[in-house]
Design goal:
By secondary structure, the protein is α/β, with parallel strands linked by helices. The protein has helices at residues 15-27, 40-48, 76-85, 103-111, 124-141; strands spanning 8-11, 34-37, 64-67, 94-98, 116-119. The chain has a single domain, classed as Rossmann fold (3-Layer(aba) Sandwich), CATH 3.40.50. A 5-stranded parallel sheet has the order 2-1-3-4-5, sandwiched between helices. Helix 1 (15-27) packs across helix 5 and helix 2 packs parallel to helix 3 (76-85).
Length: 146
């Protein structure tokens, strides 16, 4: 299988929110390689597991992770904790993209090493603008470690 690098890893259990995020990226002309995972267990397996998903080489890490908070199997905070505690993944920018405005969630996410915490806007146009702005910043403007 061909080696496939991934630029954006979207970890989101709500299919409507995932589709909206993907459409927002495309509308903003962000055409980087994106993989959508539906829960925290899939994310852990993708980042640290032994399976070679979609021909992906585990040494090649995503440039950006968009991570939901409330997910089945393994929640976003546990995924974040695993990412930021592993030397292979700790430098990857992780943006929490969630509907939770709860202060304990925000505080815990930053304590675990989140690079940004964004509450998903309810209005479509605002959502598109938010996703395109954060992607533009993290993928184009920000100087990454890689």
């Amino acid at each position: 299988m061909e080696n496939k690098a991934v630029d954006i890893l979207l970890i989101e259990d709500n299919m409507n929110d995932a589709e909206l995020t993907i459409r927002s990226l495309r509308k903003a002309k962000i055409n980087n390689k994106l993989i959508h995972l539906k829960n925290g267990a899939e994310a852990i397996d993708f980042l640290f597991g032994n399976r070679n998903l979609e021909g992906r080489e585990h040494k090649i890490q995503p440039k950006l992770i968009l991570l939901d908070l409330k997910m089945p199997k393994i929640d976003g905070l546990e995924v974040l904790s695993r990412i930021k505690s592993d030397p292979r993944t700790k430098a990857i920018p992780v943006v929490m993209l969630t509907s939770s405005k709860e202060h304990p969630d925000i505080e815990r996410a930053y304590m675990l090493g989140a690079n940004s915490y964004i509450v998903k806007p309810v209005e479509y146009d605002e959502f598109v603008k938010t996703v395109s702005s954060l992607s533009f910043y993290w993928l184009l403007m920000n100087q990454s470690h890689a």
